Amino acid sequence: METVISYATSMIDKNFDEQKAILRCQKENLDEFANLYDKYARKIYDFVYYKTFHKETAEDLTSKTFMKALEHINKFDAKKGKFSSWLYQIARNNIIDHYRSKKEEYNLAEFWGIASKDDTQKDLTKKETLAEVKEYLTKLTQEQKDIIVMRVWDDLSYQEIAQIIGKSEANCRMIFSRVIKQMRQDFIPLILALLLIRLV
Amino acid sequence: MIKNQDEKIKILLTELYKIDLSLKKHEKALVKIIKKLIAIRPDTQFDEEFKRELRMEIMQRIAEIKEAKAREKAPIFGNVFKLGTPLYALSGMLLLLAIVIAGSVYYGSRNVSSNLDFSKLSIHSVREAAFGSLKGGSNTIQSPTDSNGVGTTGIALNKDQSEIAPAPVVGKGGGGGNALAVMPPYEQPITYRYVYQGEDLSLDENQIEVLRRQKGTGSGIALMSVIKKINFGLADIGSFDSASVDNMSFTQNKPYGYTVSLSFSEGMLSIYKNWQQWENNNSKCISGIKCVPIDSEPLTLNDVPSDEALIAIADNFVKEHGFDLKLYGAPEINKNWQMFETQIASGDIAVPMEIQVIYPLMINGLYVYETSGTKYGITVSIDIQNKKVASIYNLTFQTYDKSSYEVADKDSILKYAEVGGMGRMYFDNQENAIEVPLGTPSKAYVKYWQYQPTGISDELLVPALVFPVKEKPANPGYWFRQNIIVPLAKDLINLNQDLPVPLIEQQLQQ
């Protein structure tokens, strides 16, 4: 019985053809899955981390995501959407299952304390407004938060976001636009007020 | 893929304007908001080591899936062909290499690059217990390369002497020979009794898969078939029938150049100094005595670069020369040369001229260990004086047969751990035995040389348990054993055969 694990062909390069790799995986050349893993490992991990804010959990769910994708690669249908969307969808389902098993909902609010590594800490005004932005995001609906995070942090296209959360692309664009619009209305007076306080 | 922040903001704004053009007049405010959204993105603490380990797990799973599918489909005579496939693949790759090499010889090309596929792991199953007795045809003598010592230079103790003498011995094992010679008078050997203090052990398998490395049989023949076609003008190479190429090497003729040697018979690539092009203080050393170059002072601890610097030298070399290390873990420094604690404390230690950085081999997600308890893998030896890579060894083709063997029982495994596991030589001095606590083991492979009466040895990877030494004994003089290795194969644990060696006094009394 032969099992061949090839790492030599797993180098991701500019010529990597994702569609061909998926087709080859589906034709039982599963070694090609390593290329897909190399391309998406970091992205899926980050995606999960943004929803769990816990390194070990993110690693665990990333692992589950790729193992599931490997087992079900034959079920992926390119006509129904992009491979990336399919992969993110698996990750999202894993996240939901994870929170279900813990009988809690994922909520950004409690995790903002660990904050970002921005270099604006010296600027009090910026610091304050960043805190406000974080606070503001926690008040959004889960769907709004997901769309903002996926578009701004994960760099996912609206097409991908739509496929992941099961809404139309136009709807996702609209939700994103409304949130930003609302933020502008809520934040500009706040920024001006903070500046005024500092000047005084 | 969005390349940078400005570009990203531009794209997001364009998208927003498509929905509501009136937003354009608030562009400054929108830019601020988007920038803030980007700024609060948290650091995800992504760990490259995690990525690499998960990749190994995935590849392992792929191997399992493929194996299961192959089993379902296997025709009656299927195994005959499957058995040969990795060899064909290897031969094919080398044939390609040969054509490239032959082509370059023939046409005088200077810009030839070859892609040696040392990063490919191939494993194929053979029948149960196909390798015969794992102990081999002779006793459990291990390879001289599996020393507990430093390797190419410095103090090196063969594993079988590791627990005998509390003082360094010159040039025994591991190719040592440059370090300080101190041969003390006979002292009572120390016996260590290892005491298991870990969690309760449970073995969840009755069979284990032992791997035997294929050393590239047939690849030299493939190369020979090409070489035979080259017209050397002097003799008809083709007239030498049934020949194969055993080795191929080339040398860089420039300062600090290297010789690269490829052994087709062993499936191994080695890189080492071209001695003629390196400052060679060794020639000024007095044989068998600590290497003191005539024109310079001996190396001291201050000459030893930091761990980070040593790893950087090794990393730069492997990157520069395009080594694909996907089968290997993060580099570690072999610190066995520091086993003489008291000498380190006093500063009177023979600093080796080379220190090894090991990229540990990982098979099926498990590390591979030497019987001594040191991780096994590609070993990059750093020349301390020149701060350059001196040699690279243990770079081998990773093509294996695998065969099932019976697992030892829990009690035997623990008993074997308590007497020191593989690579021990314990004496019947139980009265004065020093206790060493062992922690909960992890699974790994142990590299084991299976010697045959024919003199041909096979390289086995045997599933094993690695028991960490929780606390080393007080004032042992020297101590290198970080782990005790116990193979899981029943065949390799026979406590009745591996009896303690009587003390000299006991032998005299007998």
Description:
The complex is a heterodimer of chains A (200) and B (510). Chain A has two domains: 14-107, RNA polymerase sigma factor, region 2, helix turn helix motif (Rna Polymerase Sigma Factor, Chain: A), CATH 1.10.1740.10; 118-200, Arc Repressor Mutant, subunit A, CATH 1.10.10.10. Chain A is 66% helix and 2% strand. In chain A, α2 (33-52) packs antiparallel against α3 (55-71) and α2 packs across α4 (83-101). Chain A has helices at residues 18-26, 33-52, 55-71, 83-101, 124-138, 142-153, 158-165, 169-199, and one strand spanning 2-5. Chain A is mainly alpha-helical and 200 residues long. Residues 1-14 and 108-123 of chain A have low confidence and may be disordered. Chain A starts with a strand and ends with a helix. By secondary structure, chain B is α+β, with helices and mostly antiparallel strands. Chain B has two domains: 5-39; 45-73 and 116-216 and 266-510, no CATH class. Chain B has nine helices and 17 strands. Chain B has helices at residues 5-19, 27-39, 48-73, 78-107, 219-227, 307-320, 341-346, 410-418, 504-509, and strands at 121-125, 192-196, 207-213, 247-251, 258-263, 268-273, 332-333, 354-360, 362-363, 366-369, 377-383, 388-396, 398-406, 434-438, 442-451, 457-468, 483-487. Chain B starts with a helix and ends with a helix. Residues 74-94, 102-116, 138-184 and 283-292 of chain B have low confidence and may be disordered. The chains are: A mainly alpha (200), B alpha+beta (510). β1 of chain A pairs antiparallel with β1 (121-125) of chain B, so a sheet runs across the interface.
